[in-house]
Amino acid sequence: MLSRLATERFDVLVVGGGVTGAGTALDAASRGLRVALVEARDLASGTSSRSSKLIHGGLRYLEQFDFKLVYEALRERDLLVSKLAPHLVKPVSFLYPLYKKVVERPYVGAGLVLYDSMEGTRRPVPRHRHLSARGALKRAPALSPDRLAGAMLYYDAQVDDARHTLTVARTAAAHSAVIGTRLSAVGLLRSADGERVTGARVRDEETGRVLEVSAETVVICAGVWTDLVHELAGVQAGYTVRMSKGVHIVVPRAAVDADTGMILRTDKSVLFFIPWGEHWIVGTTDTDFTGDRAEPVATEEDIEYILAAANRVLARPLTRGDVIAVYAGLRPLVDAVPGNGTKPNGAKPTTKLSREHVVDVPVPGLASIAGGKFTTYRLVARDVVDAAVADFERPVPGSVTDQVPLLGADGLAAVQPAAGRLAEDYGVPREAVDHLLGRYGTLAAEVLDLIRADPGLGRPLAAGHPYLRAEVVYAVMCEGALHLEDVLVRRTRLLIESADSGVSAAADVAAIMGRLLGWNRRRRAAETRRYLDLVEAEQPVLAIAMSRRTPRAYPPVSSRKE
Ligand SMILES: Cc1cc2nc3c(=O)[nH]c(=O)nc-3n(C[C@H](O)[C@H](O)[C@H](O)COP(=O)(O)OP(=O)(O)OC[C@H]3O[C@@H](n4cnc5c(N)ncnc54)[C@H](O)[C@@H]3O)c2cc1C
């Protein structure tokens, strides 16, 4: 891959391996173009692993009259659920509690009628429903009955954002794109007359070696780093990026008795309770940010804000003792667009900034993109590739990604009913097959083959979690994992799902990875130390010790399971 980068000439070089960059690589590669992508750290290590993990229209954007965004996002949601990634993008219900008897139901109801009517014809998720206060408490006994006047129940979808981004990148690779991680773009190459960008100088962060990658056009998909990449390239783009920090907390599923997700109105925006396996993800915040882009960290105030907002509706308040993890991400929002005659956003709060995207071609041979939502990554990618290839001498076909299922999606309908047979054939529990199908789709067979060859790999990676040791092997062999954190933070989500942040699994993961990557004892110890440093940096407000915390005991859950 490195030698291909250094020797081939590409049509499109993508800088950044978040969902936007991965989507752009797939869009360009599936138009028959020669594509390379370089990512400075790991795929999805920026914002694309730190989102609310919703594939949604965004109910609150209706209130901001952002109808186009909601319409497009809902259509993308339906396409992903029904065709492009049914193994990864799953419908999820949200209960919207109502507290003002007369005014609120017609207002929210009208919004949901509009929301549902914007869906496409496929309708892979059900329409909204009205619930009485009793009906709401049946679905969510965790709600305090005080002042509860009823509720609405509506549907959206959710995804493991890091896994989805990785799968988009792998699908691009299946269409011949070269995907390279730990490769930072450190400068742009120019034509002899300096007029046109002709590629990028790229530093291999593993070795320090610098290589030159030639391409007819370079596309910057660097999220909140976009301004920095423009700066190093000495170009002035038509917009700047404003960073807004969003924090989530993770609590055990048993801490909140409900069989559905929930959405609450807050003074500034909304708060979600998102079901996440054996946990809830609760958030988010939306505040201006100016610190270190690589390690946005949650503060005490962020956590207190989320707990206070959640506790306004819960019968049994959540406390700090319930929180097993926190994570923070940065929204790359488009700020002033001076060249385009757009008014600067000035002091507007970040909650009010549009989530639409902007594409710019500041100099020939260089396109860049900012803004957008995870949900609309396919449209963002289509638009930036259209702009990037507009001055190509030969005709380039239009985007076809609405017809390109992601790896693992093709044939899923025929594999899901065979889950029981697969469990018997491979000698693994049925739950393990279901777990693998939900993460790899039809490629689950590749992971099962690893277990057939070495049955020890069928053992769980960490007690109480569904991940199998074979998934670590697969992450290294097929998913580009190079470091311990790639496996514990993004290929699996043990950093945020386990009470000890995945620390007790670290040595085992290092041993499995080390066998494949040729790590000696010192290297394995260094990888483990590096992971512990990351845990300390990302979870400081929880003061997570490097040892297992005693899990809290919860009363039995009375709501029925989804
Ligand atoms: C808290 C929060 C919640 C959100 N929730 C949702 C949601 O529920 N639904 C939704 O649709 N959207 C949501 N979003 C928005 C969504 O997550 C983002 O729009 C999306 O992830 C942005 O992806 P990206 O690829 O543009 O940026 P990133 O994922 O940040 O990718 C940029 C990449 O560029 C790389 N890079 C930077 N500089 C260089 C360089 N010089 N060389 C090589 N690589 C470089 C970085 O390492 C990074 O990996 C949320 C965002 C946040 C912050």
Beta content: 15-25%
**Distinct ligand kinds:** flavin-adenine dinucleotide
CA-based shape: globular
**Mean model confidence by pLDDT:** 91
Q: Which ranges are low-confidence, i.e. pLDDT below 50, for 5 or more consecutive residues?
A: 340-344, 544-548
Cα(first) to Cα(last) distance is: 44 Å
What profile does the largest beta sheet have? 10 strands, mixed
The total beta strand count reads: 18
Proportion of residues in helical segments = 25-40%
Please give the radius of gyration in angstroms.
23 Å
Structural class: alpha+beta
- Per DSSP, the total helix count is 19
Q: Can you walk me through this structure?
A:
This protein is α+β, with helices and mostly antiparallel strands and 562 residues long. The protein is 35% helix and 21% strand. The chain has 19 helices and 18 strands. The strands form 2 sheets. Strands 3, 4, 5, 6, 11, 12, 13, 14, 15 and 16 form a 10-stranded mixed beta sheet that branches. Strands 1, 2, 7, 8, 9, 10, 17 and 18 form an 8-stranded mixed beta sheet that branches. A hairpin with a 2-residue loop joins strand 17 and strand 18. Helix 2 crosses helix 10, helix 14 packs across helix 15 and helix 15 crosses helix 18. The two termini are 44 Å apart. About 2% of the residues have low confidence. The site of flavin-adenine dinucleotide (FAD) has 38 residues, from helix 2, strand 2, strand 8 and strand 16.
